[in-house]
Design brief:
By secondary structure, the protein is of the alpha/beta class. The chain has 22 helices and 21 strands.
Length: 574
Amino acid sequence: MLSQTLPKKPVDGMRALAAAHEIDRLRLSVAAAREVSFDWTLHDDRIAWDGDCEILSLHTDPNRLYRGDGLRRWMCPQSQADITRLIETRAPFDRPFELEFEASSALETIVFEMRGVRIARPDGQAERLSGIVRVVTEKKRENQRLHYLATRDELTGHLNRTSLRTELAHAIEQAKRQKGSCAYLVTAIDRLAMINEAYGFGAADEVIVAVGERISKVLRADDIIGRSAGNKLGIILTTCSEREISVVAERLRESVRCDLIATRAGQVAVTISVGAVFLPGAAASSQEAMLRAEEALDRARAGGRDGFAVYAKSAQREMARLRLMAIADEVVSALKEKRLVFAYQPIVTADEHLPVHYECLLRLRRSDGEVVSAGHFIPAAEQLGLVRLVDRCALEMAISQLRAQPRISLAVNVSGTSARDPAWLESFVGYVRCHRDVARRMIVELTETAALNDFEESARFVSNLRELGCTVAIDDFGAGYTSFRNLQMLNVDMVKIDGSYVKGLCTSPDNQIFVRTLVDLARNFQLKTVAEWVSSDEEGALLESFGVDYFQGFHFGMPTLEPDFARSATSHSE
């Protein structure tokens, strides 16, 4: 009895004080993290809260949250079911858990995250739930915003191509499982280039947006729409009979042509053409379905505007498709195994025929060692969406070579498909910016038609590259519809005269007049000129008399995998 009245030993008192301090520190840490801890004892349905208890004030009557029944009633039905399932499941071990639940406050719906552990009794029933709760409304909204941006087309707000293809894959698999059918339609705005030319490039964007809105209004609630390319929209009919495809296609076309589209530049009459594929019978995968719908679209547009066609099997087209897929597999393998290489063709001065820089022409080295030209694989890569990877690989190869060869300048091409992708152009500039020490020795070539497809984006791309020190050239000049006013606004450094005007120049007075005019105008804008496909000294002399600055052609240098500069560097290193 006496021992019970004696004071505790000093060491025990210090331990108790330290434990109390530790609990205080833990409480302060939880509150500082804007979290509230809970201990929910299930036998009496009571909850003890600690930490940032301001969170509880989001309830209209916080006192109700000190009982489990009150907390459950605050949750949305799905979360009520989740936590009831957690409590009622028998498990003879402690089990961590994590769930989100939505609850209503006086002003809005709030999202909470609850993380903790389910503590079990020996018989497996739940004894208590302990853990923390925090508000994650802003985090949830930000995640939803990022997901939206990652899956949506920036211009139209519809699904982007990647997300559209994912949804199409799901629709095909669901049709297979349920032994049903669906369809994929691709629509293209007819003659959008003419709208660009007549009304300006801003009007074209307005037309694309308006067409997307009109089409989406006539679709059923469970159908899906996305932007598959610049002037193309893809539509997934999640349930559809073969007969219904033509009915839907006519409804889509009518929704667009029924009335003029208002733009800031004026009223525009617009039509669309539609290609369709019936699934899953005509295609086994989403990639195959998209490819076959594009084939049908080509047939629909062959007859002019406002056309429609459904994919139908043909032996010839099937062979072409298999050939295309084989080339795509070959390109992917070459990218992985680093079998894309450059053939370097010199661009020489018109007067002394001395190399000033080299154009990097892509080649693919097959697994058996055979080397094939870009014409063998680039069209397939463009059609199947692989060309952006190829172009990025070419950029990295060119910069690597510029670093290895400090005395040379190289020209690298940007394909038309990549030039129409703002995100890709931005990544291109970003990569050059990281290697700006070699940028002054790099020439970036854009084709004339690609440069004007999205004029504002192209002008920004050119400006960013020139700020980094790159030279920018317009390739195949004269083959498109560029005005010199547009050329001046693009602010490029060089134009390459399309080889079709140079071939046979000595015997073609018309071509001579055309080339001389191009050169004179380019000189007025202080642009350097390169003549392509120069095949003789006679053509060279004539072009030099016109004032052409540089020549490119087999006569002055064949494309080679082992250029002189590489051989000389090897000999010096030895």
